[in-house]
Design a protein that fits this description.
Blueprint: E1 2-5, E2 8-11, H1 22-26, E3 29-37, E4 40-41, H2 44-57, H3 66-79, E5 85-92, E6 109-116, H4 122-127, E7 129-133, H5 154-166, E8 171-174, E9 180-183, E10 187-192, E11 195-198, H6 209-220, E12 225-227, H7 232-236, E13 240-245, E14 249-256, E15 259-260, H8 268-283, E16 286-287
Parallel strand pairs: 7-8, 7-14, 11-12
Antiparallel strand pairs: 1-2, 1-6, 3-4, 3-5, 4-16, 5-6, 8-9, 10-11, 10-13, 13-14, 14-15
The structure holds 4'-deoxy-4'-aminopyridoxal-5'-phosphate.
């Protein structure tokens, strides 16, 4: 595997960073998880834009332009012959001292790993997930904003541990006022009376790229979409429920905190959106292989 670190393409063995990097010492940095389908990188520009927004929010200067990051991601995929895969793009604050002052970190590091994808088991999609709400609440907007995709995922990891303890794959996190924020690594949607509903971003959700695509797809096929505060009660009494994320795509949810959602089967709109989403991933995105030159006839 070839890994990009700060302008160099190195082997997996040589892909190393310092133990003094503040990404490691303090979780000081930002990242993106991106998918490649069928030789194209899906929503690459949106991911790079979000990376730069996360970096701006933590005053981290990425030492590359948007275009340079995009072409480094494409090149890393090309060198690893990725057609369908998962890309992890990481920017750390860089090497500093043991003190937490980021001013001592002179050179942020950019790391790109492009690997094969480990897909979720098909039964998640066929039967739907049982999930729970957990005691750990989502970070406050004015603490570490949940919109920042930072290297410090402890808030989500604690919720994931609580999901593991409950014996389920995902957890719903509420915000400090008790409204639904999102899941540990996914956004959440419900369908109620023909409307698609999802918590607003200020409720404590990441600005999910899959979330954005799903909202667009639903609107395109005439389904009204509303970003509105949701309670656990709203989830329990939904007609359908699903979660969205780059890795997961769209996964139906059929049970929440022991309450069966509707008839306990993945819903019709969920299925329809899953199909539309998969179709879109197959036809759009940034091509990985350079365009073949046309032969003169
Ligand atoms: N929320 C959180 C906390 C996430 O980490 C992610 C990404 N895995 C998402 C939502 C989904 O975002 P996206 O659709 O951009 O992958």
């Amino acid at each position: 595997m070839t890994i990009y670190i700060d302008g160099r393409y190195c082997s997996e063995r040589d892909a190393k960073i310092s133990v003094f990097d503040h990404g490691l010492l303090y979780g000081d940095g930002v990242f993106e998880g991106i998918r490649a389908y069928h030789g194209r990188i899906f929503k690459l520009k949106e991911h790079i834009d979000r990376l730069f927004c996360s970096a701006k929010a933590i005053l981290l200067r990425i030492p590359m332009t948007h275009a340079q990051v995009m072409s480094a991601v494409v090149e890393t995929c090309r060198r690893n012959r990725i057609r369908d895969g998962y890309i992890r793009l990481v920017v750390t604050r860089g090497v500093g001292t043991l003190g937490l002052n980021p001013e001592r970190c002179r050179h942020p590091s950019v790391i790109i790993i492009a690997d094969r994808i480990q897909l979720y088991p098909p039964e998640f999609y066929e039967k739907g997930l049982a999930i729970v709400t957990v005691p750990t609440t989502r970070n406050l907007n004015n603490a570490v904003s949940p919109a920042i995709k930072s290297l410090n995922y402890l808030n989500n990891i604690l919720a994931k541990i609580e999901a593991n303890i409950a014996g389920v794959e995902e957890a719903i996190m509420l915000n400090a006022t008790g409204y639904v924020a999102e899941c540990t690594g996914d956004n959440v949607f419900i369908v109620k009376a023909g409307q698609l509903l999802t918590p607003p971003l200020y409720a404590g959700a990441l600005y999910g790229i899959t979330r954005g695509v799903v909202i667009e797809l639903a609107r395109e096929c005439g389904v009204p979409v509303s970003e509105t505060n949701l309670t656990r009660y709203d989830l329990f009494n939904a007609d359908e429920c699903f979660v969205t994320g780059t890795g997961a795509e769209i996964v139906p949810v059929v049970k929440i905190d022991g309450r069966i959602i509707a008839d306990g089967k993945p819903g019709t709109l969920t299925r329809d959106l899953e199909k539309r989403y998969r179709a879109l991933t197959q036809i759009s995105g940034e091509p990985i292989a350079p365009a073949r030159k046309r032969r003169a006839i």
